[in-house]
Amino acid sequence: MQITRKTALAASVALTTLTAAMPAAATDITLYRFFGDCEGEFGGVTDLNEAYGECGIITVLTNKFNAENEIGANVITQTVDWGAYYDLLSATYSTGDMPDVAVMHASQLVNFTDRNLMTPLGNKLMEAGVDVDDWADAARNNVTNNGEIYALPFDIHAILFHVNVGLMKEAGFVNEDGSVRLPSSPEELILMGKEFEEKTGQNYIAIESQSSEGMAVRMFDAFVWQQGGDVLSADGKEATIDSPEGLNAATLIKQMYDEGLTDSGLDYGGAEQAFIGGRAGILVNGTWGVNNYATQAENGAELQEYTALDFPTLYEQPATFSNSHSWTIPMDESRTPEEEEAAIAFLKFLDDNNFAWAMTGHLPVHTSVIESEEFAALPHRSDFAATPSMARGIPAVKNERGIYDAMISEFTAMWLAGTSPEDAVAGMQSGVERILRRNNR
Amino acid sequence: MTNRTPQRMRRDGRAALIFLAPFLIIYCVFLIFPLFKAVFISFHDWELAGGYREWIGFFNYEDLWYDDYFWKALGNTMRFAAMAVPSMTILALLLALGLHGHGRVRAVLRSVFFSSSVFSVTVVTLVWQMVLSPDRGLIAPIFRSMGMEPINFLGSVEWAMPSLVIATLWWGVGLPMALFLAALGQIPDELYEAAELDHASRWSTLRYITLPGIRHTVLLVLVLQIVGQFQIFGQAQLMTKGGPANTTLTLVQYIYNTGFRDWQVGYATTIALALFVVMAGFSMLQLWLGRKGDDQ
Q: What pLDDT digit, counting tens, does each position of A22-69 carry?
């Protein structure tokens, strides 16, 4: 008995000495994100020069933070498939298993902040040394609700026209100074599209046209905004889709399909393949593709001479669909101060590396980065320099995903099920009204 | 019989209860309680995250009645079940008839046809997306070799639902086939021998011996299929996401969207209860029809 007690005492003394001699225990924090999993390629990489693409850059940034931070923080990444991301994140609030850091589209933020599910971050970020006044207004507004900052904005991403300059030359749409000529009115879009197809034998435009991404809805939104309209009232309480502007935009997009300017059978991957394979002059897709397509074009894809241009203004005022990736700290009463400190440190680190993220093609949020020479030196950035000022989103509204899905299913019916533009806008209007009816209760 | 004293019966009753207890507890905790809880939730505006709950009486039920998406999803689900249940039953029966009996080839084929059932829905839908894709799919070259433009199966209003049915058949035919095989093994050989002596045709044998011999299994398969196919979710969610233009939006998918995308658990529960009523109704009808057959 005595021996046992002695042994126990000795063991506990030894343990205490050992623990005291060891550096502070690592604080593990969980990171919930989409952008894909590329541990295989970038698992151990901490050199940002080796990283490319959204997945590569965020993975390397995380590795670098884990390797270099001095507070013993260790970020454990949980990658979630994009399609299920928000469903899973929402469900963690029911299970009590909220992550310490989660990526979030600015358009989704209001769902969480309105229900007090996000940690207010303004003061904490400023205390950590984040210069929030250097954020571009659009980015800062995206993450602010009732005057409080709830997230760290990481980018502004917007829809562009990705262009195959080789095919444009063939069609005679390149000016003497080498710039590509894009349409400036709805009529011109159709005329140029037809001429392009006659001269090159390829589709003028490739765009995701199935029921998943809603790329055509983003185009629709942009055309509505360009006419001075909107799809929702400014307070987000009423749908305003069934309007003359909405009908104009829907009619134009329907005409694009009817005239064969684009292939209605393309899904997201199909549209990308058609563009990279040199079977389309223009790909309608976001800033996130720039880095990828430029690399493909350099590596000998059928895509000859790639460039990315601002979404064209076909009506009175410029506008393009945009959103913003941001980093949040979900509200969790059980989070320790050390874990929160680690989470804030990670956010600060990401903010410091805003330029690295801009290499994907996304627009940075820091005005100092936007105006920097190193950003201007990135390929093609000057070709879509007007995009930050054109970037728009729908007014902040709860259940934005439901609204977006309702619009997609009614809108795509125009070319998938042959409904008229009138029926499509009426269908979108009533689908969105249904969701708003719940929101407004 | 002489031992059946009241004490003995009470003791037997207690013993039965003890033996049944594990099942009853699980049944109550995981089925009865959630069912009543669901009814309770359906009278609330109950959000998935954030703890917002408000008693709203019959508002969810009223909303359901006027919800076009609900009726559309119900119609789609019934259309799917109407295609999948009979075709699954007939296909499983035909396979079982073909593969019933001895022989190595049959044994191997039985395993082959059953093997697709072990895949998860993710794998199955991925495989079928690869098969059906109009530009990179397995059957696209077949269309092109015949000088035709490949059909965009999953993006077409006419073809999307049948495509889901085909993927479901490929995936799910194993279990009903196994049930039919087991039932066929139960039919006494003497009956077939007698039929042979009477020079009965193969058709007569099938009609008067085989089918009556397995009719309870047919009924079981039909009920299982109705219950199963009414709950179709994974295929529609992963292959078409309910599209094109909501033509493959199914009820469970709508429940999922309402609960997890829109966070309206109260309303989602109401739709789930409606689905429960529909499924229970069809299953009862099926059982009743089967019993009516027994009485005759």
A: 445 689 999 999 999 999 999 889 999 988 889 999 999 999 999 999
pTM: predicted TM-score of the whole model, two decimal places: 0.84
Q: Is residue A35 part of a domain?
A: yes
In this predicted structure, what is the pLDDT of residue A63? 96
* Interchain CB distance below 8 Å, B262 and A265: no
Give the residue numbers spanning the domain of A291: 158-322+390-440
A18 shares a domain with A85: yes
Residues of B in contact with A419 (CB under 8 A): 245
| Chain A residues with beta carbon closer than 8 angstroms to that of B260 | 87, 90-91
List the domain boundaries for chain B: 67-295
Tell me which chain A residues have a C-beta less than 8 angstroms from the C-beta of B263.
Answer: 90, 111, 399
DSSP string of A354-392, one letter each residue: HHHHHTTTPBPSBHHHHTSHHHHTSTTGGGGTTHHHHEE
pLDDT of residue B39: 96
In the predicted model, residues of chain B with pLDDT beneath 50 are 1
Q: Which residue has the higher pLDDT, B229 or A440?
A: B229
pLDDT at res. A24: 52
CATH number at residue A57: 3.40.190.10
Please answer yes or no on whether A212 and B241 come within 8 Å at the CB atom: yes
Three-state DSSP class for A319?
coil
CA distance B147 to chain A (A): 18
Instruction: Extract the runs of DSSP E, i.e. beta strands, from chain B.
Output: 44-46, 53-55
A212 with A356, same domain: the answer is no
CA distance A51 to A181: 33
CA atoms of A99 and A93, how far apart (whole Å): 9
Among the listed residues B164, B132, B165, the one whose alpha carbon sits nearest the alpha carbon of residue B151: B132
A100 and A193 housed in the same domain: no
- Given a cut of 60, whether residue A4 has pLDDT beyond it is no
Residue A379's pLDDT band (boundaries 50, 70, 90)? confident
A78 and A219 fall within a common domain: no
Superfamily of domain B67-295: MetI-like (1.10.3720.10)
